Amino acid sequence: MKKLINAVDDVVKEQLEGMLVAHPDMLKVNFEPKYVYRADAPVANKVAIVSGGGSGHEPMHGGFVGMGMLDGACPGEVFTSPTPDQMYECARAVDGGAGVLFLVKNYTGDVLNFETAVELAHADGIKAQSILIDDDVAVKDSLYTAGRRGVGTTVLCEKVVGAAAEAGYDLDQCADLARKVNMYGRSMGMAITSCTVPAAGKPTFDLPDDEMEIGIGIHGEPGQKRMPMATADEITTMMVNEILDDAAYSRTVREWDREEGTWVEKDLTDAPYVEGDEFIVFVNSMGGTPVSELYAVYRKVAEICEKRGAKIVRNLIGPYITSLEMQGMSITFLKADEEILKFWDAPVNTPGLRWGA
Amino acid sequence: MKKLINAVDDVVKEQLEGMLVAHPDMLKVNFEPKYVYRADAPVANKVAIVSGGGSGHEPMHGGFVGMGMLDGACPGEVFTSPTPDQMYECARAVDGGAGVLFLVKNYTGDVLNFETAVELAHADGIKAQSILIDDDVAVKDSLYTAGRRGVGTTVLCEKVVGAAAEAGYDLDQCADLARKVNMYGRSMGMAITSCTVPAAGKPTFDLPDDEMEIGIGIHGEPGQKRMPMATADEITTMMVNEILDDAAYSRTVREWDREEGTWVEKDLTDAPYVEGDEFIVFVNSMGGTPVSELYAVYRKVAEICEKRGAKIVRNLIGPYITSLEMQGMSITFLKADEEILKFWDAPVNTPGLRWGA
Amino acid sequence: MITKAQIVQWLTTTAKVLAENKEYLTQLDSAIGDADHGINMDRGFKKVMEKLPTVEDKDIGNVLKTIGMTLISSVGGASGPLYGTFFMRSGMVVTSKEELSGDDLLQLLQAGVDGVVQRGRAQLGDKTMFDALSPAMDALRSGLENQDDVVTALETAVAAAEQGMKDTIPLQAKKGRASYLGERSIGHQDPGATSSYLILKALLDSVKA
Amino acid sequence: MITKAQIVQWLTTTAKVLAENKEYLTQLDSAIGDADHGINMDRGFKKVMEKLPTVEDKDIGNVLKTIGMTLISSVGGASGPLYGTFFMRSGMVVTSKEELSGDDLLQLLQAGVDGVVQRGRAQLGDKTMFDALSPAMDALRSGLENQDDVVTALETAVAAAEQGMKDTIPLQAKKGRASYLGERSIGHQDPGATSSYLILKALLDSVKA
Ligand SMILES: Nc1ncnc2c1ncn2[C@@H]1O[C@H](COP(=O)(O)OP(=O)(O)O)[C@@H](O)[C@H]1O
Ligand SMILES: Nc1ncnc2c1ncn2[C@@H]1O[C@H](COP(=O)(O)OP(=O)(O)O)[C@@H](O)[C@H]1O
Ligand SMILES: [Mg+2]
Ligand SMILES: [Mg+2]
Ligand SMILES: [Mg+2]
Ligand SMILES: [Mg+2]
């Protein structure tokens, strides 16, 4: 294993130390327990948006803390969900009185830990709500699996809901918007190399030179299937079609009932896309794939959309939700209505995403 | 070789096609010969800033075309200098009457090709000037080598001079500022893996698992020396000290005399840094190194600067001048005065660098 | 009777065994997960070892609850809240005890396993830690019902856990990260079932000692 | 006399030889450069082959000038302007000729080499293409002065180029990308010197044919 690191156990801590000295205008860092939070937190009467998850996906989530996006981010160890004490204490630090919305990627670990955090925050008198992001179309059903993973849509949701909170949306409005963004978003990923978790010291999986993993998540885990390596055009076509043709997806999620202080089950179904839909398209590098290759992919995405009557109205291209140094990419479509576009275009000022400010 | 590409020969073209469909608000692309230029070019009465070089360093240069930075960028084949016809035709497309400043990285190929372009532009009645960027302290002398390579300072120079042109600087003022930025900038790079030029199909060099290349350029070429792999702190310390302790550097450069229509030689000497100097610090990924590792490096840079009385007043951290998927990083210091800081902070709106707009 | 010293020994042995099996568990997790289970468990039980001296004078219930909270706030991932809940719930049913009968042990473990199911909602055959824990509970219960001594009953429980762990190999995962692999999860042993077996084995060894 | 057909043959043979040696030259460049010299030269001469039919009816001077401009606008890198200049300058001294004497050939090549030096400012021993070109010119000149026929003179010139090429191995590069390697450039043959040798060899073969 070759990385620009010191001791394996200090990887997350030292990265946070770097962020703190690099961006004192945007964020602060708490180290025991670990969380990143807005430099001007708590922002009075603004809903606080908090996310978190395993480290190794940078800039997500810590790099999205700042004006117009996240109020707080809780980094776990590499590829390992953070713990409830981090989330709870982060929520306390950023709550400006209007409550805290947790944006949670749908992985068993994240879900279980954030559930505990919501309970702790609630017990402490903080208005807390959590919304699951589960947008990975590579996971086909929710009955025989842990359900779709939360991937690319997470970044777009954090941006859009962060801007809405900035604009004065209350907690329920933010939660409703987050739920909508999630239900409008679909992603798929692939990898051509594995990555190496520092503590593990060797690649998570072996991938022969002539094969690729399709339907991969963001944790360096193996994907849905292994296929012979193909051209960028072939790969892109396969993924975009899988996203655009994705059927209605149903699952039961647990959302927090603030009145009752209990979890309630909700059945949600994502409607399939239809011709004429407008989209924000996000072509993402898994880390090791250079942006030049992403543009070759985006070119093909645009071509297919043109043919299929899908209208791309905004895009994001780059490494935003990564898996360490893994080579590969993911494609996310987010159906965009006026509300979503307004908040997408709103100013954002974070280390990882910045415009209009 | 595993990459998200189609035919090896189409790599540069398809990337440009992707940029064109992705960013029609910021830029346009000409394909025969290849150059990227501002969507609103030519901007009347504004000095046009044009750069270029081999492809494979994305987002540099095409990703820096847009308001507040470059008017044009000429991409060569991967790691191969572009040709004079590209530069000349690009200059014609972006000249708004106030002249064209070429920012040229000091590599034999780039220098020779841009020299021809200047001559062609001049012959065509375009006010043209070129400034060399040569900031790589890993190259020790200019007598027995082709001189210091142009590396990280290039990005900072394009940003600063681009903003100055936007603010109304004339051609000589832009050239003077570019020369100053170059003389105030010093960089050093290193790599822990090689990269693979698509057309070559295999890694440029082999690097054993326990070794690294120090003093590497940005073309996947071997570096100044090979050393046993070390920790991020050790590597950072070595590189920052080499930059801060760098002695006066002298060389003879050729600049264009617009009156006479000939090249004139100029002796330039970069003064060493002194305690109390203020800096823009740029920690850059060679492509495959994730931003998380850059933050660990930045943390150490900040610590050393603190100790040595070097004041970091701005920073840039991320993959901006890359070598395909190479893992490694470079560190750039740019001594910053009021003029430089003003233009650094000015709005910029390009695919690769964006703030305030 | 099982003494508090033996319970403390259990935790200590678990920490040792998980440290020894850190790479093995991580390797199992790299086949069908994200290559961190061994790292997670080792990190958590290293914290447990730091915490243990500060609570050794407390009763067994308190010791276990503290260990549960320590795991929750240090392991992360799926296994953190699950094992954390396991020990918290275990501790709750033996509040203020300084030693345990066989029946106490049964109740303690059953409460822990119930907690795992409540949090994680795994069913038998989903290819999770529950597939090792559940048969172990059945064996322990029938052993004690047959008037076996605790060590003998635990021996059959550990054997059942080991069998349950091995039986996860042909299963297709339906919960946790491995479920994303669909049929590709078949043919690999579940890391969580493996750590559960190791933890129960450590209990047996500590009670025998 | 050397005919225009032979000059055209030279360019065609060069294109073929450079295509055959694309990987070899690139490999040499990967040792002390950026692994593109073979790719660059092959790309350039492929363009030359596209262009050639459109100028074949022009005189030798025009053919060479067009080839030079083609190289300049298609090769890039350091070698593009250098070889481009080489052919442009070569063409300039034989304007409107349809065939060449030995002396014409000498002047043509000398003008080309002078152009390379003027652009690139290399000195003998800098480990560049000039280290193959320069001894070849010396050999050609003295051969012709000794009244050798053109083929014989060219044969000694090509032998000298080959020797010059090999002699770049122990040199430390002082120009171009290889100079960044300092002492590490020692022990490797210069790619540009190698392509220069191949181009001169192609000339010999075409004149002999
Ligand atoms: N819903 C669940 N119920 C019970 N056990 C589960 C559940 N989901 C996952 N597990 C267990 O957790 C183990 C993985 O733990 P670990 O690797 O530490 O967490 P993560 O999957 O978050 O990386 C699996 O092998 C499985 O035994
Ligand atoms: N200043 C120079 N004068 C003469 N030849 C040079 C000079 N600089 C470089 N070269 C030649 O160019 C060759 C490299 O060409 P190439 O690899 O195509 O370009 P680049 O170095 O830009 O990648 C070197 O091997 C050397 O022979
Ligand atoms: Mg994990
Ligand atoms: Mg080159
Ligand atoms: Mg795991
Ligand atoms: Mg080269």
List the helices and strands and how they pair.
The complex is a heterotetramer, with two copies of chain A (357 residues) and two copies of chain C (209 residues).
Chain A: H1 11-22, E1 27-31, E2 34-38, E3 48-55, E4 72-78, H2 84-94, E5 100-105, H3 108-123, E6 128-133, H4 153-166, H5 171-184, E7 185-191, E8 211-214, E9 225-228, H6 232-244, E10 249-257, E11 262-270, E12 278-285, H7 291-308, E13 311-318, E14 328-335, H8 338-345, E15 348-349, E16 354-355
Parallel strand pairs in A: 3-4, 3-5, 5-6, 12-13
Antiparallel strand pairs in A: 1-2, 2-4, 7-8, 7-14, 8-9, 10-11, 12-14, 15-16
Helix pairs in contact in A: 2-3, 4-5, 4-8, 6-7
Chain C: E1 2-3, H1 4-20, H2 22-32, H3 37-55, H4 60-72, H5 79-92, E2 99-100, H6 102-120, H7 130-145, H8 150-167, H9 191-208
Antiparallel strand pairs in C: 1-2
Bound molecules: adenosine-5'-diphosphate (2 copies) and magnesium ion (4 copies).
Your description of this structure?
The complex is a heterotetramer, with two copies of chain A (357 residues) and two copies of chain C (209 residues). With 357 residues, chain A is of the alpha/beta class. Chain A folds into two domains: 10-183 and 249-272, 3-Layer(aba) Sandwich (Rossmann fold), CATH 3.40.50; 188-244 and 274-335, Hypothetical Protein Tm841, Chain: A,domain 3. Chain A has eight helices and 16 strands. In chain A, helix 2 (84-94) packs across helix 3 (108-123) and helix 6 packs across helix 7. Chain A is globular, with a radius of gyration of 19 Å. The model of chain A has no long low-confidence stretch (mean pLDDT 96). Chain C has 209 residues and is an all-alpha fold. Chains A and B meet through helix 1, helix 6, helix 7 and strand 16 of A and helix 1, helix 6, helix 7 and strand 16 of B. One magnesium ion (MG) binds next to loops of chain D.
